[in-house]
Specification:
With 444 residues, this protein is α/β, with parallel strands linked by helices. The chain has two domains: 225 residues, P-loop containing nucleotide triphosphate hydrolases (Rossmann fold); 194 residues, Nucleotidyltransferase, domain 5 (2-Layer Sandwich), CATH 3.30.420.240. The strands form three sheets. The chain has an eight-stranded mixed beta sheet, sandwiched between helices.
Length: 444
């Protein structure tokens, strides 16, 4: 049956790319450019072409693949392109089975047991969705399972093995850039070229290539993003890597916690980084205000970024309202601009609000370094998207802060995390933190 909708010019170009003989094919570019739809369609086409074939669509987190693929893109593809094909969706093991007994399995790579179960079988197609979030070691494991010998029903010839990738481009330090753009081995320190560079092909797809399927205002929304995010989500560009950066896009993306339930919170902190200004003038610094909680799973969760400009009266109310809304345990605030003033502002908004003054005796980078280590170890998660705060974190380097303006959001983030993790250490006392992902340096 013919496809019941029209592909855009760029989608037709991508379709032609997918049909080439190369094994590894990546679609990269801006947000909502049609990459995921087209690759899910390609997986479905291959499943329908070869009876009893097996295929896998994988993301870093299982809940993400459920939310974005199983409950959204996959049924959309079937409704638009193959409304006449009946399929069975098994929501115990999460796979779709077609009348020809071919299957598409859906999984995340963040659960060891599930990963071992899924990758215990062989597949004719593997699709790594949002590969910017997937560690290279996990990608390696997936490659070893691209080994099923399936036959195309119409020709009797073997179905060519394919490994699809897509992403909103991270930095040029990511393994996807090294594989597909530099054609090099991604291992740290390696300068070796790929032995089979022609097997790695890619195509850039941006939202402006998909205008007919987007709301009229969507491009304007992307144009209004900060420069780094605009390059990534509108222009679809790999961002130059800073080898001295403390935080990375890849780490933040890997620890993003969306479409997933939050654990109960053992402790919640509202952190404030005051600007020292009592005005609302546009040239004044922002007042950093963030909310972070320590979950029962021993991970910290960034819950809100409420950073604002305003008088002490206004930001005091915002901080206290967040304290009450989250049933927080304490407000912490830097006292360099006057601990007495900060306490007065907060307790004017709410009498006897629990408050702790923290002293910035060390530089911003020194304070941020241990928090960067916790991010790398997966101990701090982002319960949503916080573009301005994330932009500030990405400007922290071992040689200093590289941003144009004061990182008030990031400073508040660091204060909150610093306040939460000593609580974790105190509670666990002599526990060996190697098992929970914390380094030995945090045991003291």
């Amino acid at each position: 049956m013919a496809i019941s909708f029209s592909l855009t010019d760029k989608q037709r170009e991508a379709k032609a790319l997918i049909s080439q003989t190369a094994i590894h094919i990546m679609l990269f570019g801006g947000s909502r450019s049609g990459k995921t739809f087209l690759l899910v369609l390609a997986v479905v086409n291959r499943a329908l072409a070869a009876s009893e074939s097996r295929h896998a669509i994988l993301r870093f987190r299982f809940n993400h693949v459920k939310a974005t693929i199983v409950n959204d893109t996959f049924p959309k593809v079937m409704k638009l392109v193959y409304p006449h094909i009946e399929y069975r969706m098994d929501k115990t093991d999460y796979y779709a089975e077609f009348p020809n007994q071919s299957q598409i399995w859906f999984s995340g790579l963040d659960d060891k047991d599930r990963t071992e179960k899924i990758l215990g079988a062989e597949y004719a197609t593997i699709y790594l969705n949002e590969c910017s979030q997937i560690p290279y070691s996990s990608r390696h494991l997936a490659v070893t399972r691209l080994a099923q010998r399936a036959m195309v029903d119409a020709t009797g010839h073997p179905l060519n093995l394919k490994l699809f990738y897509d992403c909103n481009p991270p930095t040029q330090a990511h393994w996807s850039y090294k594989l597909f753009k530099e054609k090099k081995q991604p291992e740290a320190g390696s300068k070796d070229l790929l032995p089979d560079p022609d097997n790695y092909i890619s195509l850039q797809m941006n939202p402006e290539d998909n205008l007919e399927n987007l709301p009229d205002s969507y491009i304007d929304t992307l144009k209004g993003l900060p420069e780094r995010l605009r390059k990534r989500f509108l222009l679809g560009q790999f961002i130059p890597a800073n080898e001295n950066a403390l935080f990375s896009i890849e780490t933040i993306e890997a620890q993003r916690w969306v479409n997933q339930d939050l654990p109960d919170m053992l402790r919640v902190i509202v952190a404030v980084d005051p600007s020292g200004s009592d005005s609302e003038e546009n040239d004044g610094d922002m007042i950093g205000i963030v909310v972070m909680g320590l979950g029962t799973d021993s991970h910290a969760y960034l819950l809100e970024d409420l950073t604002m400009k305003g008088t002490p009266e206004k930001w005091g109310k915002v901080a206290v309202n967040a304290f009450e809304r989250h049933d927080a345990d304490r407000i912490v605030a830097e006292k360099n601009y006057g601990g007495g003033m900060v306490r007065s502002v907060l307790q004017t908004a709410k009498r006897n609000v629990p408050y702790k003054a923290v002293d910035a005796t060390r530089g911003k980078v020194v304070r941020a370094e241990p928090i960067s280590a916790l991010m790398e170890q997966g101990m701090i998660r982002f319960a949503g998207h916080f573009p301005e705060l994330e932009d500030e974190l990405l400007d922290f380097t071992t040689t200093g802060y590289q941003g144009e303006k004061s990182p008030n959001r990031a400073d508040a983030f660091v204060w909150a995390a610093t306040e939460l993790f000593p609580a974790l250490l105190k509670r666990e006392k002599k526990k060996d933190f190697r098992g929970s992902g914390l380094s030995k340096s945090w045991q003291s």
